[in-house]
Amino acid sequence: MKNLNDIDSLPPEQAEVALTRLEAIKAQRAVENALAHYVPYPRQQQFHNAGATHRERLLIAANQSGKSLAGGMECAVHATGRYPDWWRGRRFDKPTIGWGAGTTNETTRDTVQRILVGRSGQPGTGAIPKDAILELVSARGTPDLLDSIKIGHVSGGVSVIGLKSYQRGRESFQGETLDYLWFDEEPPADIFTEGLTRTNVNQGPVWVTFTPLLGMSETVRRFLLEKSPDRDVTTMTLDDVEHFTAEEKAKIAASYSAHEREARTKGVPTLGSGRIFPVAEEMLACEQHDFPRYWPRIGG
Ligand SMILES: Nc1ncnc2c1ncn2[C@@H]1O[C@H](COP(=O)(O)OP(=O)(O)O)[C@@H](O)[C@H]1O
Ligand SMILES: [Mg+2]
Asked: pLDDT above 70 covers what percent of the chain?
């Protein structure tokens, strides 16, 4: 079939085959341009919007709720310059240099890298549209891990996203001047500070996406308790997402033990038994961030 009009003259069975093929092509194109098809949930939209007015952002949310997806999509828009119509967040009008960072080399490959460019062997099926990927530069030491991604920007220039892991220590976060930085999963405090320093020159945005399984760590404390006009916190629970049915959400919640359920399904920092978190601070955090309904009652 050379011409689309020819479809009229095809026998029914062949027309059926052609239609199935067209559907498959359409689906593959969508997978290879996920950015154009990304419709953020209200909480994700709120998180992106906050970038226009706050330099440091935290999306503190449930497991599997769309934290990494939102974090990676934000990298993809700044790297390509393809800001969607609905975009109200921070904007760059030139190619950018940024980093995406995860916990270990392996988790960085399996989360940050997968979200940005797709699984190993399926490049171009992540947040960065396939037609914008210019080069995938391999890292050494860890199979399939990338060191960086070169991306075509709408201006005609080239953007770069480097991949980093906390495993490699604070020293590996030194040196570069960056436009932005994405921390997926909670960074140690010294790495967060080092990362923030990389964006000082341009006062670039830094965003962090995680489920708070480490309790009231320094990073959680910084965002929840140390108020600053530069800092924004967006919470997102399983109730805020649409990719699970109510039944699935209930099943997921039931699968967690009581002490981790609040963190894993609602993004509320787990206090654990050996908590070091003073009651007054707990109350304050509770009042300031959408958590009151969820926060574990003090003293049971
Ligand atoms: N805005 C959205 N629209 C549709 N599906 C979404 C959206 N955000 C997240 N998801 C779905 O949720 C899944 C988990 O997202 P991910 O960001 O990996 O979760 P996590 O919060 O654990 O980092 C995605 O693979 C996707 O299927
Ligand atoms: Mg994730």
From this structure: 89
The β-bridge partners of 279 are none
Residue with tokens 């070091």: 276
Active-site pick, 185, 194, 262, 282: 185
The CB of 105 under 6 Å from ligand 1? The reply is: no
User: Does residue 244 line the site of ligand 1, with CB under 6 A?
Assistant: no
Q: Clarify whether 185 is annotated catalytic.
A: yes
Domains of the chain, start order: 42-298 (3.40.50.300)
The residue that leads in pLDDT, 281 or 223, is: 223
Average pLDDT, the chain: 90
- Atom 7 (ligand 1) nearest CA: 66
Tokens of 252: 């997921």
Q: Do residues 291 and 216 make contact, with C-beta atoms less than 8 angstroms apart? A: no
Average pLDDT over residues 125-147: 97
Task: Show Cβ contacts of residue 47 under 8 Å, excluding neighbours closer than 6 positions.
Answer: 40, 57, 59, 70, 207, 234, 236
Question: Is 40 close to ligand 1, i.e. is its CB under 6 Å away?
Answer: yes
Ligand 2 center from residue 11 Cα (angstroms): 48
Asked whether the beta carbons of 152 and 132 are under 8 A apart, the reply is yes
Burial of 64 (0-12, 13-18, 19+ CB in 10 A): middle
Instruction: Label residue 290 by pLDDT band (50, 70, 90).
Output: low
Mean pLDDT calculated for residue range 38-55: 97
Q: Is the CB of 64 under 6 A from ligand 1?
A: yes
Ligand 2 geometric centre to CA of 211 (Å): 8
